[in-house]
Amino acid sequence: MPQAHDERVPAAHGGRVRGGEWPAVALSFAYFFCVLAAYYVIRPLREQLTAAVGSTQLPWFYGATFIATLMLTPVFAWLIARYSRRIVVPLVYLFFIACLFAFVPMFAEPGLIGTRALGTVFFVWVSVFNLFVVSVFWIFMSDIWSMEQAKRLFPVIAVAGTCGALAGPTLTATLVNIIGVAPLLLVSASLLGVAVACIVLLGRWARTHGERRFEAAQEAPIGGGMLDGLKQVFTDPFMRNMAILLLLADGIGTVNYALVADYSGATFSDAVSRTAFAARVDQVANVLTVLTQLTLTRWLLPRRGPGAVILVWAVVSMLALSLVVFASDPHAPMVFGLPAVAIALIVSRGLAYGMAEPARHSLYARVPRNVRYKGQNAVDTAVWRFGDTAIALGMNALRALGVTTGAFAAISAMAALSAATIGWRMSRRVEAAPTAEAQPATS
């Protein structure tokens, strides 16, 4: 227990950035801004496709994405086992930059592979892209910042992602009528290029000024096998609980996403109106995210730890889902013309990215590097997309049995309750454990 007390004392002095941390925080901010902006520049194409085909097709999309992530996760583990982070982390982003360049001629001439095939391939690729670039970002952050720093700084750094999420759609809306669709891929690639530069500079800072610079083999290859990350999910209690926590959170997000996709498809008859509605939902959710990050999370995470933040997120999400459960018509306009299903999505998504994600990722700052790079990546990619696939298939099966929108919301509310319990227990256990670089992740 003394360790947990020592971790919290310095964070309680205001939770702000300290003098020597400013250069790295600024680079981390720019890095995450560029990553999320790059994603949100190209996301509208994927969202429009989802609304057009309806949520009953989501299992096929999620299933293909799960297979892709299941194949790429061992590749990432193999790379990090044999090469240092200064090679592997930039390499991941360079790979996705190359993919964006490869998509340019396909969007310029859709007839090359057919519009439907392009849409399907692009949906899967964008989903994989989002998972890996964000997962690698948070892995890198938890590797260069200590647990105490993570609790203070992750809420600040997370704001950058929300700013990028707001800037991305704005860039798309501004530029699409000027340069067209295909060149937007180059805009996304350019943003990722800036992220790579930030990675290089952050690596140099960590080697000379980072608190972890004295840890043994801080930048050395991790070693081990390519399936270590997936094995950790099943054999290590810490990773198993983190996987369950993510699956429960995914149970909230995927159900809400599907319900809103159904509402959009049933309410709007053309691609333009569906895209405009998706953009409006994204904008409101992202504003809620940044407000939460700048106020509640920034105050609560350093003082009360990840468990309290996850608990608040889960409880508020349950309250939002109750609007859908008890609404006589969850598709009827309720607040500012938005129906209950959209409000539930906005609140749960806004707080998930504003509260739950910084809190969840801060837990990894206390575990061994092998877990940070392999297990964390496996959870944030393969496990996440397995959850998407399983939940979407389950929703289709329950629909066949006559389960209603309100009942789906009630199931999500129960998932939120379970997530709150696991998140609280995991936080208490991790914060009470000794420094994990010398301990197993299960401490």
TrEMBL record:
It comes from Lysobacter arvi. It comes from the Bacteria. The keyword Acetylation does not apply. Gene3D superfamilies: MFS general substrate transporter like domains. InterPro entries: MFS, MFS_trans_sf. The keyword Transmembrane applies. This is MFS transporter. Keywords: Membrane, Transmembrane, Transmembrane helix. The chain crosses the membrane at residues 21-40, 60-80, 87-108, 120-141, 153-172, 178-203, 308-328, 334-356, 400-424.
